[in-house]
C-alpha cells in the first residue's frame, strides 16, 4: 500500500519547504519531494546563498587590497580561490542540513527523488538509482522553481559557456569574462569576478541595465559599476558564440549596425529564467499552462484541477525566493481554512552588489504609464554622516509618494545596506504610510537609515542635511 498524505509538495526550494513546514505546523500530514540530494532548491544550493557568499568574500578581498588608503598597513593580499569556494560550499552545506532538521522537527516526510503525476492523487517518485515509489495525496502543490535560459542555439557547458550555476564554481579567475545580460544575476556575478581580477564586459540588448528598475537608479548604478572597472555595451545584440583553439569569440552587432567581436575565457549568459514545468507529467492530469509555460492558477494558487496547486517561479510574478516563500505560507494557511494572502504590490527586489540596490513598489516610469500624479523626495548618501564616516558615500534614497494623499507608492535606493533598509519601507507601505509618517519617525543617529528619513522630508521639500 502506498503512503497517504493530506498534502504533497513537489519541490523543496524556498516556496516548497516553507509551505511544507507551515502545513505541518497547522497539523496537516505533509510530504515534500525534492530531486536534489539536498533541500533548499536553486536558491540555497546554486543561487541566492552561494552567490551572496562569494559577493561578500570578494568584497572583503577588494576592500583589503585598499586598506592602506584608510591607514591600515598590511602585507601583500593574495587570493586563495580554492579556500573561498570551500567557504561558500560550507555555508550551503550548513543551511541545507538546517532545513533537513526543520523537516524532522516538524514531522514533514522528505522524499529524495524526481516527482511526477500518475493521476490527480498519485505521485511517482524516482530516486537516483531509478527505483520508483508511489505516494497518494489529497492535494498536491507544484513548487519546482525555474532554470536559466540560454540564447537560441547556444547550450551551456558550465565550463566556458556558463549559467549562474557555472559562474559560482569556476576553478580559476578568468582573464576576461563576457556577461550577456545586464540584469540582477549577471551584474552580481560580474561584480564577483571583476573584484577578483577579471576584466568584465556586459553586453545588454536594451539601452539600459536592470530592466524594470527605476531608470534614475539604473543610470546611477551603471556609473558606479563603470567606476569599479566593469565595461558596458548597451543596445548590442549577440549573434553567435564560437569556440576554436581554446579561444571563445562572442560576435555582436551594436545599435549602429557595426559588428564587434569579443574574445574571452568565460561567457556568462544571464538573460532570464524559465519555469521548471517539464517532466511533471502535467499533460496526464490536464494542468493548463500559459504561453510562457507557467502554470495557470487562480487567486488561491489553484490550477484548473481542483486538488492541484502551484506557487513560486512556476506561476506568474517575479522569480524571487521571498515571493515564493510568501506564497507557500499563504497557500498553507488557505488549505487549513485560514486567510492566506500575498500583497504583490509590496515585494522588494535587491541586487547584492557593492553598493547594494533595493527597490519596492512603483517606479516613476510605471506611475507615468498609469497616469498617477506623484511627488519625489531624494537624499544622497554623500550627506549621510554614517556613510561619510566609513567612506561609503555612493548612491541615494528616492521616495515616491502620491501627490494628493502623500501615500508612499514606491522607494528605490542604491547605497550601503540598501537590501536591509528596504524592509523599513516594506512595513511602512504595508500599513499605508505617508512620506510624512516616515519623516516624523525618529531614526537613530548615525545610521544609514537616516537617509530614508531625509528622503521622506525631501518629499515635502524640507530636508535638514541637504
SS-derived structural category: alpha/beta
Q: Helix tally?
A: 14
Rg, Cα atoms, Å: 24 Å
Could you tell me the number of beta strands?
A: 22
Give the termini distance in whole angstroms.
72 Å
CATH topology of the largest domain: FAD/NAD(P)-binding domain
Which CATH class of the largest domain applies here?
Alpha Beta
Mean pLDDT level: 97
CATH superfamily of the largest domain: FAD/NAD(P)-binding domain
Number of domains: 3
Contiguous uncertain segments of 5+ residues: none
Q: Could you tell me the strand content as a percent range?
A: 15-25%
What spatial form do the alpha-carbon principal axes imply?
globular
CATH architecture of the largest domain: 3-Layer(bba) Sandwich
The helix content is 25-40%
Overview of this structure, please?
The structure is a single chain. With 466 residues, this protein is an alpha/beta fold. Helix content is 32%, strand content 25%. It has three domains: 206 residues, FAD/NAD(P)-binding domain, CATH 3.50.50; 110 residues, FAD/NAD(P)-binding domain; 111 residues, Enolase-like, domain 1. The protein contains 14 helices and 22 strands. The strands form five sheets. Strands 1, 2, 3, 4, 5, 6 and 17 form a seven-stranded mixed sheet that branches. Helix 3 packs parallel to helix 6. It is globular and about 70 Å long. The chain starts with a strand and ends in a 7-residue tail after the last helix.
